[in-house]
Write a structure and sequence with these properties.
The chain is mainly β and 202 residues long. It is 4% helix and 50% strand. The chain is built from 1 helix and 12 strands.
Length: 202
């Protein structure tokens, strides 16, 4: 666990290291592939995905995702986003929803600065979405872990009529944007884990 702002700042510089080269994989129930990864938080990243051995979860793996403010950070770096478009090939007669999503990273926040990690989950051509957000308040120099967990009545399922792409739109944000020499940063670890809930189509 990171204990000092100096160690966190050093880790920030290493955050652009290449991510896992995990490729799309299949499990008993479904297969998953990253179609695109677009946004200011992943401008040069090629994301990959793989199903975990339990057959109910998968990871999205990427690199170099962080927001920064203060110090020498560019004025627009206080907010970064990355939208992952995921193709999930499921057995005929079944559908799924995102039940849980787990994130981790580290933060360097000076006094009075707030960090935000947020995400929304929705399907291509469907208006309903699930949303999660988590705030962190400075002073803080430590790792963080968050989870978006949705109750059964909050689950948004993919249409049974056809295969829809899953959109996972993620964001890191720092507020306010300080005019100080101190570095503020929100860094996301290069892997997200999503667990799916399944049901039989009528």
């Amino acid at each position: 666990m990171f204990r000092t702002a100096g160690a966190l700042a050093a880790a920030l510089l290493s955050a652009v290291a290449p991510a896992s080269t995990a490729q799309a994989a299949t499990a008993t129930a479904f297969a998953v592939t990253v179609v695109t990864a677009n946004g200011s938080g992943c401008p040069n990243s090629t994301a990959t995905a793989q199903v975990l051995p339990d057959g109910s979860s998968f990871t999205i793996d990427f690199s170099g995702y962080f927001a920064s403010a203060g110090g020498t950070a560019p004025p627009t770096a206080f907010r970064r986003n990355c939208q992952f478009v995921i193709q999930i090939t499921r057995p005929e007669g079944t559908t799924y929803a995102v039940e849980n999503a787990e994130y981790s990273g580290f933060a360097v926040l000076n006094n009075g600065v707030t960090g935000l990690q947020a995400a929304s989950y929705y399907f291509q051509g469907q208006s309903a979405s699930s949303v999660g957000s988590h705030r962190f308040t400075g002073p803080l120099a430590d790792t963080w872990d968050t989870a978006d967990t949705f109750a059964p009545d909050e689950l948004v399922f993919a249409s049974c009529l056809d295969q829809r792409l899953l959109n996972v739109n993620t964001e890191l944000r720092l507020t306010p944007q300080p005019a100080t020499a101190g570095l503020n940063a929100m860094v996301m670890d290069p892997s997200i884990t999503l667990r799916l809930a399944w049901r039989t189509c009528p």
